[in-house]
Specification:
The structure holds 2 protein chains of 2 kinds. Chain A is mainly beta. Chain A has no helices and 11 strands. Helix content of chain A is 0%, strand content 56%. Chain A starts with a strand and ends with a strand. The chains are: A mainly beta, B mainly beta. Chains A and B meet through strand 5 and strand 10 of A and strand 5, strand 9 and strand 10 of B.
C-alpha cells in the first residue's frame, strides 16, 4: 500500500449520471493530483492541488470537477461524461507540488462510461 | 512539441536475464527524469530518478542511464524476476515546472 487510497476501485456509469471519485491520503502531503490513464496512452495530468488550492487545470473539460476540501482528501466529480472518458483515474500525492515526480499513487478507479 | 516515448511497447525476457527498457525524449531543456513501474491493477510506483548532471545512477538491481547527446534514457534491470513483470514508463520535466511529461510505457513480461 502506498498510503493513497482511492474509492471506488471500479465504476460503471451512464452518460447522464453524476458520480464522484474519492481519494484520501494520510501521508502529511501538501499536494494532490488527478491523472487520467487511457489504454496505450501516456499518463495525463488533469489537476494539481497545493495546500487545497488548485494550481493546475490542464485543459480538462468542465464535466470533470475537482474538489479538495482539505489536504487529505481529493474528489473528482463527474457528470454527463462521454464514452471516451472511460479510463483509469489515478490520484497521487506528494510532499509539495514541485515534487510531483516523487508522488505516491493510489491504485486508481477504473471508470467505464456506457 | 514535447514528447516522451519508449522504443518498444512490449519486451519479453527470460527470468534471470537482464532487461533494458529505452525511452527517448525531445526536450533538450529537460533536467530531471524518472522511471516508474506499474503492476497490473496498481498505480505507478517510483523506481529511480536521475538529474541531467549525471549519466548513470544505480539502485537495487536497477540502473538508469542518461545520454543527453541523443536525448535517450534507459532502465536496466539485472537478473529479471517474475515480480518485475509490469509496465514501465519514463517521465521528464525541466526547470521549476512541476509538470511531468510521461511516456506511454513498455510492457515487460518475464518468462519462467
Amino acid at each position: 500500500e502506498t498510503g493513497v487510497t482511492q474509492t471506488p476501485r471500479h465504476l460503471v456509469m451512464g452518460m447522464t449520471n453524476k458520480k464522484s471519485l474519492k481519494c484520501e491520503q494520510h501521508l502529511g502531503h501538501n499536494a494532490m493530483y488527478w491523472y487520467k490513464q487511457s489504454a496505450k496512452k501516456p499518463l495525463e495530468l488533469m489537476f494539481v492541488y497545493s495546500l487545497e488550492e488548485r494550481v493546475e487545470n490542464n485543459s480538462v473539460p468542465s464535466r470533470f470537477s475537482p474538489e479538495c476540501p482539505n489536504s487529505s482528501h481529493l474528489f473528482l466529480h463527474l457528470h454527463t461524461l462521454q464514452p471516451e472518458d472511460s479510463a483509469l483515474y489515478l490520484c497521487a500525492s506528494s510532499q509539495e507540488a514541485q515534487a510531483q515526480g516523487l508522488a505516491f499513487f493510489g491504485q486508481g478507479t477504473r471508470l467505464t462510461v456506457v | 512539441g514535447e514528447s516522451v516515448g519508449l522504443h518498444l511497447p512490449t519486451l519479453s525476457v527470460q527470468e534471470g536475464d537482464n532487461s533494458i527498457i529505452n525511452c527517448a525524449y525531445s526536450n533538450s531543456a529537460s533536467d530531471y527524469f524518472i522511471w516508474y513501474k506499474q503492476e497490473s491493477g496498481k498505480g505507478p510506483q517510483f523506481i529511480i530518478d536521475i538529474r541531467s548532471n549525471m549519466d548513470k545512477r544505480q539502485g537495487q538491481r536497477v540502473t538508469v542511464l542518461l545520454n543527453k547527446t541523443v536525448k535517450h534514457l534507459s532502465l536496466q534491470i539485472a537478473a529479471t524476476q517474475p515480480g518485475d513483470s509490469a509496465v514501465y514508463f519514463c517521465a521528464e520535466n525541466h526547470g521549476n515546472d512541476y509538470k511531468l511529461s510521461f511516456g506511454a510505457g513498455t510492457t515487460v513480461t518475464v518468462r519462467a
